[in-house]
């Protein structure tokens, strides 16, 4: 169980390495948000296998995802809970490969990273500019280094 589930964004699941899966098997990883008036609803996040012993899953966008819901009673009779839960189902790799996670993982896109970097640097320059004063307003401070804003805005 995971307390304070509304404040999490990602879940990390990994095998310890001490006991591998049997040949041809892996684990489906499921996640259940707390529902105060309903039994748990399990969402498929992805899988683990001997070839992929760890994974990071983004769960912040799953709160109201209606797709890829499995039978709420698949993991046995559950009591109502206000804690998020992680479920693992050991299955043949053939079955796992045919399953579709609730949110498909997107491959890394360099353009998104470049866009983020540009926005971050723009905000950084704007923040530093808020402390700007003219040379006439400066008081001599020998221990302080000043950078000309014109050099940062190029």
Automatic annotation (TrEMBL):
GO terms for molecular function: Hsp70 protein binding; nuclear import signal receptor activity. GO terms for cellular component: cytosol; nucleus. InterPro entries: Hikeshi-like_C, Hikeshi-like_N, OPI10. GO terms for biological process: protein import into nucleus. Residues 1-104 form the Hikeshi-like N-terminal domain. Residues 112-153 form the Hikeshi-like C-terminal domain. Belongs to the OPI10 family. This is Uncharacterized protein.
């Amino acid at each position: 169980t995971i307390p304070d589930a509304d404040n999490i964004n990602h879940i990390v699941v990994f095998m310890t390495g001490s006991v591998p899966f049997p040949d041809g098997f892996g684990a489906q990883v499921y996640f259940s948000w707390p529902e105060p008036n309903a039994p748990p609803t399990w969402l498929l996040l992805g899988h683990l296998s001997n070839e992929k012993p760890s994974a990071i899953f983004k769960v912040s966008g799953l709160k109201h995802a209606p797709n890829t819901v499995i039978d709420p009673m698949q993991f046995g009779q559950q009591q109502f809970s206000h804690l998020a839960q992680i479920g693992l189902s050991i299955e043949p790799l053939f079955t796992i490969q045919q399953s579709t996670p609730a949110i498909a993982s997107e491959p890394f896109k360099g353009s998104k990273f470049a866009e983020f970097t540009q926005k971050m640097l723009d905000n950084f320059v704007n923040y530093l500019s808020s402390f700007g004063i003219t040379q006439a307003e400066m008081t001599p401070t020998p221990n302080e280094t000043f950078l000309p804003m014109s050099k940062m805005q190029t």
